């Protein structure tokens, strides 16, 4: 298997079913990854980055020879679209589970592919390679061989065209072309499998319009915008495109669909796609098994498109912060638990939840690969049921230790526009409200703070035998207040409570505090308690707190790691970091210092010391999790210091540059 993570585990699951032994490759960082332990054999590739391990075709082929492998599956990205690697696999006498190298070479060139498909009669948008030809705006700039939306830019006026084209060329090192940018358009794709005997089978269509940075985060099938007649047109166009290119294997023909039902060919992705799980759920077919069958020279077992059963929706759970420009997140995943999962890595036998994950409790999420942690799929008889089931499961998921897009996904699934199928590629731009924290209720945050304090006290009693005989939360005097200070969703708060002689909650409070006053002796004095509903502690231990709030019972799970408490409840998830009452002073930094917001590698440096820059001007970029992140000047000034160079690896908080502001 020439890949890692979730897709490697997905392929291994089918191989076990059909009796094929598996071999994994792994980097230094992935030594304990789930895909390594689940393989029959594993070969180490020295290094951490994808460029030094999983994208090194020579190392993977050497590993395959060492393990006696006779076939290589490339997964759904990376080397899967590399014609050179496909040719090397064939030259080494191994079966390549994918389209032939010659076909990959054709598909890799988007300009050539569009020309071939257009000649076959499939609608395409005009392709413009000379900037002088561009007279109508907006246009979309694209690299000719790019993947995953890298380098794509929308240009709305001729003034910024040249700069945008230059930026895309610098970012991708590729030939650039432009095409008209169609507003309010949907991203629709038709998954297909073609065998070497002339059969081409489409599997309906998938809606992939909810995207960030031109990358999909929610996919579903069937599309709410496609009726049977349009589905037939799309599938017919997909078959024509596949045959025009001479494609064999599994892939997807991607289209843009406007509000009038007109569509245009976008590209042909020559791999099993990340979102293949939704197709498996509604069709009942194992697409990896069909891939293996075609690679062995077999014929497809179905005479035509399989019927669509029910509705499936998939979300990509990613380690990133939507509120901060999708900044990738890293760290240890202390807990990852999704409730009521019916299956993993294979089509579901009946409606329910499917989890395809590349992580587990204790997985260290680094910055060397993309940010996807897992895919969660709901399959139900109707779209409404699938969306509701998926949103509920996400809300109840315990995801501790790494910031994720989970809350945003829940908000999208429950948004009225999504529920009625009113989506397109601009959905997130049109609905900024989905970026708000999932917990909008102040009372919900307060209840979580109280639960964290009660669980913390119970945990301390469990480790202190002298206190075990005392009532819950009680120390020396029944009127004494128990307090803690947490850094919560809206900043530092003090939470406190008082217990009576019977171990019952006599009162509690949560109030915002000034970080600069955390060392004042006044903290711990009980404020007015009238603004909180009557609350009864039904149960409290170190991992669970049950509260009766104003006559309604609520169970909250509390998972403490170090000084951080993760509180999960039907109200959502809250992360609270306990603060010291006497915090150490923060280290001083030079005025105008620009600090790395995440660990990564410096990709481009666009300024030099002594250069005068404008506010908002791009200074440099960092690459992390296969995405480029810009660092802009916060104000006009002069670059006083620039301690980093392209290729340098930096950690969070490391100095990138110093500006003398004007």
How is this structure best described in words?
This protein has 662 residues and is of the alpha+beta class. The chain is built from 15 helices and 39 strands. The strands form 10 sheets. Strands 8, 9, 10, 11, 12, 13, 14, 19, 20 and 22 form a 10-stranded mixed β-sheet that branches. The protein has an 8-stranded antiparallel β-sheet with strand order 26-25-24-31-30-29-28-27, with helices on one face. Strand 25 (491-499) and strand 26 (505-512) form a beta hairpin. It is globular and about 85 Å long. 43% of the residues are buried. Residues 109-296 form the ATP-grasp domain. GO terms for molecular function: ATP binding; biotin carboxylase activity; metal ion binding. Residues 585-660 form the Lipoyl-binding domain. This is Acetyl/propionyl-CoA carboxylase subunit alpha. Pfam families: Biotin_carb_C, Biotin_carb_N, Biotin_lipoyl, BT_MCC_alpha, CPSase_L_D2.
Topology record:
Elements: H1 5-18, E1 23-26, H2 34-38, E2 41-44, H3 57-67, E3 71-72, H4 83-91, E4 95-96, H5 101-108, H6 110-119, E5 139-143, E6 153-155, H7 161-172, E7 176-180, E8 186-194, E9 200-202, E10 206-212, E11 215-221, H8 228-245, E12 249-257, E13 263-269, H9 276-283, H10 287-295, E14 311-318, E15 320-321, E16 327-328, E17 331-332, E18 335-337, E19 341-343, E20 352-357, E21 364-365, E22 372-380, H11 383-396, E23 398-400, H12 406-414, H13 416-419, H14 427-430, H15 442-462, E24 481-488, E25 491-499, E26 505-512, E27 535-540, E28 544-549, E29 552-561, E30 564-569, E31 572-578, E32 593-595, E33 600-605, E34 612-613, E35 618-624, E36 627-632, E37 637-641, E38 649-650, E39 655-661
Parallel strand pairs: 1-2, 3-4, 19-20
Antiparallel strand pairs: 5-6, 5-7, 8-9, 8-10, 8-12, 10-11, 11-14, 12-13, 14-22, 15-16, 17-21, 18-23, 20-22, 24-25, 24-31, 25-26, 27-28, 28-29, 29-30, 30-31, 32-39, 33-35, 33-38, 34-37, 35-36, 37-39
């Amino acid at each position: 298997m020439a890949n890692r993570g979730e897709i490697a585990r997905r392929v291994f699951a089918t191989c076990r079913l059909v009796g094929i032994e598996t071999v994994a490759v792994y980097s230094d960082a992935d030594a304990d990854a789930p895909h390594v332990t689940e393989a029959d054999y594993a070969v180490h590739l020295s290094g951490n980055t994808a460029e030094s391990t999983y994208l090194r075709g020579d190392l993977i082929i050497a590993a395959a020879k060492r393990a006696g492998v006779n076939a290589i599956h490339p997964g759904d990205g990376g080397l899967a679209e590399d014609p050179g690697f496909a040719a090397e696999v064939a030259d080494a006498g191994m079966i390549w589970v994918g389209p032939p190298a010659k076909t990959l070479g054709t598909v890799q060139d988007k300009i050539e592919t569009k020309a071939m498909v257009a000649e076959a009669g499939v609608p395409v948008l005009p392709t413009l390679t000379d900037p002088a030809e561009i007279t109508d705006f907006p246009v979309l700039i694209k690299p000719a061989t790019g993947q995953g939306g890298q380098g794509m830019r929308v240009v709305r006026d001729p003034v910024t065209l040249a700069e945008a084209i230059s930026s895309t060329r610098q970012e991708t090192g590729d030939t650039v072309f432009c095409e008209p940018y169609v507003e309010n358009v949907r991203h629709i794709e038709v998954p297909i499998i073609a065998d070497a005997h002339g059969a081409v089978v489409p599997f309906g269509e998938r809606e992939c319009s909810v995207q960030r940075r031109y990358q999909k985060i929610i996919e579903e099938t069937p599309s709410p915008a496609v009726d049977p007649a349009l589905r037939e047109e799309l599938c017919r166009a997909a078959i024509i495109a596949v045959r025009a290119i001479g494609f064999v294997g599994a892939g997807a023909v991607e289209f843009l669909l406007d509000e009038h039902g007109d569509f245009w060919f976008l590209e042909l992705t020559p791999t099993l796609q990340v979102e293949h799980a939704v197709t498996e759920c509604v069709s009942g077919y194992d697409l990896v098994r069909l891939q293996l069958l075609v690679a062995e020279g077999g014929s497809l077992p179905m005479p035509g498109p399989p019927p669509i059963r029910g509705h499936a929706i998939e979300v990509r759970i990613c380690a990133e912060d939507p509120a901060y420009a999708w900044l990738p997140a890293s760290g240890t995943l202390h807990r990852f638990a999704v409730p009521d999962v019916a299956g993993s890595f294979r089509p579901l036998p009946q409606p329910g939840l499917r989890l395809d994950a590349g992580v587990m409790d204790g997985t260290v999420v680094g910055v060397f690969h993309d940010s996807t942690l897992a895919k969660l799929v709901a399959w139900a008889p109707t779209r409404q049921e699938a969306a509701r089931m998926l949103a509920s499961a996400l809300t109840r998921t315990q995801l501790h230790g790494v910031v994720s897009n989970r809350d945003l996904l829940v908000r999208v699934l429950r948004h009225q526009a999504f529920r009625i199928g009113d989506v397109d590629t601009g959905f997130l731009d049109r609905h900024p409200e989905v970026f708000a924290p999932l917990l909008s209720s102040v009372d919900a945050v307060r209840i979580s703070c109280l639960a964290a304090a009660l669980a913390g006290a119970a945990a301390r009693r469990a480790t202190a035998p002298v206190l075990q005989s005392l009532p819950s939360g009680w120390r020396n005097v029944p009127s004494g207040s128990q307090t803690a200070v947490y850094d919560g969703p809206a900043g530092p708060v003090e939470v406190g409570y008082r217990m009576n002689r019977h171990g019952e909650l006599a009162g509690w409070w949560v109030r915002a505090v000034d970080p600069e006053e955390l060392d004042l002796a006044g903290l711990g004095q009980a404020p007015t308690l009238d603004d909180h509903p009557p609350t009864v502690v039904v149960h409290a231990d170190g991992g669970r707190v049950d509260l009766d709030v104003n006559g309604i019972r609520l169970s909250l799970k509390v998972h403490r790691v170090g000084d951080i408490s993760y509180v999960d409840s039907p109200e959502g998830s809250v992360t609270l970091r306990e603060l010291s009452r006497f915090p150490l002073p923060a280290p001083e930094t030079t005025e105008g210092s620009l600090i790395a917001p995440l660990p990564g590698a410096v990709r481009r440096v666009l300024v030099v010391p002594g250069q005068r820059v404008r506010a908002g001007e791009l200074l440099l970029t960092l690459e992390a999790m296969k995405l480029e992140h810009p660092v802009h000047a916060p104000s006009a000034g002069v670059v006083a210091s620039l301690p980093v160079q392209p290729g340098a690896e930096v950690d969070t908080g490391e100095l990138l540059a110093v500006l003398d502001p004007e």
